[in-house]
Amino acid sequence: MWNDLPSTTRTGASFSIFKKLLKTLLFREPQKKNIFLHVNDGSSLQSLQVVGGAELSDPLLTFGSAVEVTGTLRKSPHPQQPVELGADQIHVVGECNSVDFPFKIKERHSLEYIRQLPHLRCRTNVFSSLLRVRSEATTAVHSYFKSNGFLQIHTPTITSNDCEGAGELFQVEPSGPDFEEEVNFFSVPAFLTVSGQLHLEVMSGSFSRVYTFGPTFRAENSQSRRHLAEFFMVEAEISFTQSLEDLTKVMEGMFRSTTEHVLAHCADDVGLFHKHVTPGHRVSPEGQKCPPYSKEMITYSEAIDILNRSSENFTFPTDWGCDLKTEHEKYLVKHCGDVPVFITDYPYDLKPFYARDNQDQPKHTAAAVDLLVPGVGELCGGSLREERLSLLKARLEDVGLEEIYSWYLDLRRFGSVPHGGFGMGFERYLQCILGVNNIKDVIPFPRFSHSCLL
Amino acid sequence: MWNDLPSTTRTGASFSIFKKLLKTLLFREPQKKNIFLHVNDGSSLQSLQVVGGAELSDPLLTFGSAVEVTGTLRKSPHPQQPVELGADQIHVVGECNSVDFPFKIKERHSLEYIRQLPHLRCRTNVFSSLLRVRSEATTAVHSYFKSNGFLQIHTPTITSNDCEGAGELFQVEPSGPDFEEEVNFFSVPAFLTVSGQLHLEVMSGSFSRVYTFGPTFRAENSQSRRHLAEFFMVEAEISFTQSLEDLTKVMEGMFRSTTEHVLAHCADDVGLFHKHVTPGHRVSPEGQKCPPYSKEMITYSEAIDILNRSSENFTFPTDWGCDLKTEHEKYLVKHCGDVPVFITDYPYDLKPFYARDNQDQPKHTAAAVDLLVPGVGELCGGSLREERLSLLKARLEDVGLEEIYSWYLDLRRFGSVPHGGFGMGFERYLQCILGVNNIKDVIPFPRFSHSCLL
Q: Where is the Aminoacyl-transfer RNA synthetases class-II family profile domain (chains A, B) (predicted)?
């Protein structure tokens, strides 16, 4: 949307000889003796202004070129920038043909347009801002877990499990002539992980709190603005808990701490999105529009009552036992006052084998919890895990998975502890705080059905 | 190797009522009135001793069971532990049948044995130590890059590139009935990444310093102690450099800073490996055996001279132009005094298309650098990248890749900058500092040919 190169290096307050290679954006003032460049090294949204005499003018100093500038950092006469660089020498180290360069000076390109150019879009202001926010949010997530006693586990990408028992898996096999004759490289069918949960549960047998943060995969044949074939997930598992509230506290703590960090470290970058991409979108410790500083917690059964009392015409049924669809989630968030909503205790039959049986009736539920947020819908999903061997075994037998998951039953045989965990889609988190509508615009290289550029 | 459960929770110095669910290791002293448990929550190698009266004795208090203990934390009479827990109540929350439990009390199980039990091996001392070291090393790597101005980029796992132009790729396709008819989910063949380098180079067009840290893949049909099908790689890319020394400084800084952090935060865990797994192995700021605090830097041509002057009988040829094999690397490290060795300026024809041409003759080299370390061999590999459009284009034409990599040429067309980068195998780093011989023992869930457990 902004064809300006990401502009200005942060320079601090020292006034000294300054030599650095920088990207440049040139403004030549006609009829005047000075030339002005806006240069940027990617460290912030703001640009450093370089001022040079007319003798430094060079036809190669085009928009998008890379330059080396030698000069003196000095106080700027402009109130909006603390310093500027008075250039003694300017050297173009990387030319850029403005006619061929797909971003144009002073023009706002749409997110859709720059998405077609994954190898160049980081050179727009908006996408370099996104990448700084993403990097800081990643740092903040790690830092939250670290400071709360969680051990980081590198759960595997390739797995022989199918965590959800659902389809939508990518299978992995070697390509190339050496392997054509082999049936399975790993001797068993191997897939890309849909969740690190079961591997984290392994670690719950030894550590009180563990987490993982990495890529997960769904072979979903969808071009929707909400789905990717490869996306990042933060997952945590907490031992010694029998309470969904313990899980919601960690979800909330992670959200709050990460958002505070991002707002503190990337104010300009977040501001760019809120000003130009989603005008009116706000995220702040006081803001009610997004982060769960104020929140609601309702049961699934209460949610169904709310939906059935409403005057909305839903496309999908709202009988007890039906899954909540996007339209329902949206309504519930709105009904609760556009705040994050935790929904707990889902129908037992809707949840996977590992969800803990609440053993209630006649409406049989499992101890599961989802976090819905405005604009995005489901951000987190979690549950207590069935730690009771007999119940877990019976359920796995029911679905015919007892043999495949005998290792998982072992975890309950040998010093089992009550535990639970959750996962958060990292891209959805970024959509939530930035107000970005399409998930493809918050990941460096989006992969989805019919698209794997680069 | 150690069947003791990872033992003791860190307790601090406060003496107060203490209630926590913990894993237990029971010692009952026959004929005495007290029972003793060693309990652990995974936070450190050391165990917390729980002392209880004989009336708390319970046949379910077996090795490997999980317990909840209520009592008073008090000064311990033993000099090796600052505190012990005087138990008022002990409740077994998770039983463990010692006969079936594959780890036995007071027995040292081999790394090979515990490797067969990936769902339980985190419950041995040695593997819980490994996981703590791995988590701290991960934190330290992120922290090094963060504090040196690097932006973290989530490079993709699924890619349509083949970075090295070599084989050994895993291909990705959806499994299941919905997709049987489709040729390619992504419309193009898609692979698991062998390196995030080219994606990082994209980012070098906008940011001065970027890095990535995630899983990478090789479909290598090898059961060797040095190879995995899925392993973690740290990769960095630095803009505005024309010097290999800039790269070696970052490699060295990362190694030093990570190792210092691990030694400061996991002294007991590292000590366990150096005492019991590889007796005599040392890593310390003064130690010469591993970290590059003292180092050598030689060119490939000098390395060839050294090899040819030696009296060793090498299996593989040592003519100028031949690739260095493990036997050569080992000799070179030994020759240089068992210190890390940087080898620079490899034959041009040995390096991939992106390596920067040194334009020398008659021995034509590229600006590439490898870091060899004692015990492990190649730990890092890097190069300056060919930023000159005409040279890069000519080379891609030579190998017939010009069309596929037209996007990569675009990076040189529009404001190219001199840059370079490197990758470090994270598991090899862990092997190096811990002295672990087999790479399968430093990753939570090893994947290699014919094995994908869990």
A: 131-444
* CA proximity to B131, closest of A97, A211, A68, A46: A211
Q: Is B162 helix (H, G, I), strand (E, B) or coil?
A: coil
Handedness of CA A275, A279, A281, A285 (dihedral sign): positive
Contacts of A281 (CB under 8 A, 6+ apart): A273, A274, A289, A290, A375, A434, A435
| B64:A414 CB<8 A | yes
- Rg of chain A over Cα atoms, rounded to whole angstroms, equals 26
pLDDT at B179: 56
Closest approach of chain A CAs to the CA of B417, in angstroms? Answer: 6
User: Cα–Cα distances in Å, from A389 out to A64, A197, A397, A417?
Assistant: 63, 18, 12, 11
Interface confidence (ipTM) of the complex: 0.92
- The pTM of this model reads 0.92
Q: Do B451 and A42 touch (CB under 8 A)?
A: no
Give A350-395 pLDDT, tens digit per residue: 999 999 999 999 999 999 999 999 889 999 999 999 999 999 999 9
| Cα A409 → chain centroid | 33
Residue pair A420/A241 in contact by the 8 Å Cβ criterion: yes
Residue type present at position A308: N
| CB-closest option in B122, B168, B452 to A188 | B452
CB contact under 8 Å between B154 and A132, yes or no, is: no
Q: Tell me whether residues B416 and A94 touch, CB distance under 8 A.
A: yes
How far, in Å, are A314, A329, B93, B271 from residue A317 at the CA level? 7, 13, 41, 60
